[in-house]
Amino acid sequence: MDILKKIQDHREKEEELKWEGTFAEYLELLKERPFLAQSAHSRVYNMIKNAGVDEGHDHKRYKFFDQDIYGLDEAMEKLVEEYFHPAARRLDVRKRILLLMGPVSGGKSTLVNLLKRGLEAYSHTDDGAVFAIKGCPMHEDPLHLIPHHLREDFQEEYGIRIEGSLSPLNTMRVETEYGGRIEDVLVERIFFSEDKRTGIGTFSPSDPKSQDIADLTGSIDFSTIAQYGSESDPRAYRFDGELNKANRGMMEFQEMLKCDEKFLWHLLSLTQEGNFKAGRFALISADELIIAHTNEAEYRSFIANKKNEALHSRMIVMPVPYNLKVSQEERIYEKMIRDSDISDVHIAPHTLRVAAMFTILTRLKDSKKAQVDVLKKMRLYDGEILEGFSDVDVEELKKEHSDEGMSGIDPRYVINRISSTIIKKELTSINALDVLRSLKDGLGSHASISAEDKERYLDFISLARKEYDEIAKKEVQKAFVYSYEESAVTLMDNYLDNVEAYCNKAKLRDPLTGEELNPDERLMRSIEEQIGVSENAKKAFREEILIRISAYARKGKKFDYQSHERLREAIQKKLFADLKDVVKITTSTKTPDEQQLKKINEVVATLVDEHGYNSSSANELLKYVGSLLNR
Ligand SMILES: Nc1ncnc2c1ncn2[C@@H]1O[C@H](COP(=O)(O)OP(=O)(O)OP(=O)(O)O)[C@@H](O)[C@H]1O
Ligand SMILES: [Mg+2]
């Protein structure tokens, strides 16, 4: 479909959604769909909940955040359960400003944007529809029209509780335009849009001396005073501050803690009492979610100041830490690269993963548990199953440091290093070694890294480098084996047949000759030795495997060579050991013979076809692995 047609379709759809009627007609709507009268907080919560929730065994995952926020499931769960949900139920937290606190480039703005764009879309749906008094610059809730003394009756009839008073402007309009007949007041459906300044606002402090509170709460329109005769005529006032415009939806307060106190006091009253003061009017009711964000240092200095105590107690602080999962960090980089101007550069496989390993390592804190080094912790956090560790251990690790994820290297640094390397060197492809080198070179000029951290970070660069070496070797060796998976499975089946016979003191039958054979001790040992199973320990090792197999069988699960971490490692090492010399000679020879050349071409083709390399990154990889194997 061409774009003009799509534009037309879109316009028609928008037309269909429009609704306009009298207040009396609106009440009819409410009878059928009372949820239309929900508060701003409730709407946000429902938007998040309606996007779907995965109920894990001890955590909930809110899918709303999936598309843009990676690896922060637990922080998002906390945010929803401790703020949005209770706020939607009109509990007290709703009266506090939501302050997201997290390290630089940790996704705070991304989260706020997700909520804003989400609300815009949600207001176009049936469930998220919003109605307002027509022609009101603050898109006031029509239910404010119901006079206070009738609200109890209203609640009885409709089951809806009304909060807030009719604004001075609409009070006057009801008199002048509708002759006091509130049932005739026109109501319309509104659609949130930050661009059109409907229901979504952003306030960002500028120079504290010149900034006017008008930016938040609107101002007198001096050109109309003559017409209306007085400054206190609401028609002479422009209700166009961010707080006005964001009514019914949300307002983002950027750099809130950098802001002048007088601004903050306005917010206090708004959040606490649900209203704010503008010009010479009675308090104006507002119903909106206010989100601010800050980093830890700024927050600490804010609460250290006694003067801010009252403000502080009116905020609810929610941590937005860095992601601590390697695989999710990789996704963050992929997303950032997709959105950048380097998206056409070839990035060799594992490049972003290795960069992510480094980054995550800088964010982790040492565990008190002796058997958990930082690499293990990194793996466990990423959901890898390591022998001797259960989910419970991982939960315990997470509880050891409450401030884990609040410091370390940020994703933007990594992407900046990658892009500057690409641009400076005019590369058309980049690999893990290029990136590690560039990350390392950049540490010196990174503004917020102390000398002590720099030392640690250099260690992490070498750790990540070692991880990469292993990955690179495996990759090449796998590509050398004709059909790696198949060979691994065959070798394992063979091993298991022998182990079974050994444990049951039985014989094996040769499939060809039918001859009875003793278990092949040489074969079993050649595999077990790869992972250091000693002669004394072999019996226990073999029995343990059989037990694992029967446990799998009982649960109806298939045992394959991935099911047992150490066995898998042993099989892989055995396959590679048989191959090592071939790989070593082939990859490192300067003058390959015809045979070797053929093999190299085959391996390069496998790397390109099956593993995502291009021919130059595949050749680089081979060269690198050749040099590793010859050390
Ligand atoms: N957990 C995450 N999931 C997805 N993207 C992330 C995550 N953390 C950071 N990013 C990405 O990193 C970049 C910086 O994030 P963002 O601007 O949201 O951070 P911020 O916390 O607002 O930073 P600042 O303190 O500098 O304002 C964005 O491109 C964002 O998409
Ligand atoms: Mg930001």
**Over the alpha carbons, how many angstroms does the gyration radius reach?**
32 Å
Largest sheet: 5 strands, parallel
Count of individual helical segments: 26
Mean pLDDT over the residues: 89
Estimate the helix proportion, in percent. Answer: 40-55%
Percent of residues in β-strands = 5-15%
3D shape? elongated
How do the helices and strands line up, and which of them pair or pack?
Elements: H1 3-17, E1 20-22, H2 23-32, H3 40-50, E2 53-55, E3 60-62, H4 73-88, E4 97-101, H5 108-122, E5 130-133, H6 151-158, H7 168-178, E6 186-190, E7 200-203, H8 214-217, E8 219-220, H9 222-228, E9 237-238, H10 242-245, E10 250-253, H11 261-273, E11 275-276, E12 284-285, E13 289-294, H12 296-304, H13 309-312, E14 315-319, H14 326-338, E15 346-347, H15 351-363, H16 374-381, H17 391-400, H18 411-424, E16 429-430, H19 432-443, H20 451-480, H21 484-503, E17 508-509, E18 516-517, H22 521-528, H23 538-554, H24 565-588, H25 594-611, H26 615-629
Parallel strand pairs: 4-13, 4-14, 7-10, 10-13, 15-16
Antiparallel strand pairs: 1-6, 2-3, 5-6, 8-9, 11-12, 17-18
Helix pairs in contact: 3-4, 14-15, 14-18, 15-19, 15-20, 18-19, 19-20, 20-24, 20-25, 20-26, 21-23, 21-24, 24-26, 25-26
Magnesium ion binds next to helix 5.
Task: Give a nutshell description of this structure.
With 631 residues, this protein is of the alpha/beta class.
Structure notes:
By secondary structure, the chain is α/β, with parallel strands linked by helices. The chain is built from 26 helices and 18 strands. Strands 7-10-13-4-14 form a five-stranded parallel β-sheet. A hairpin with a 7-residue loop joins strand 11 (275-276) and strand 12. The longest helix is centred in the last third of the chain and has 30 residues, at 451-480. It binds adenosine-5'-triphosphate and magnesium ion (MG). Residues 68-72, 102, 104-110, 295, 323, 332, 336, 411-412 line the site of adenosine-5'-triphosphate.
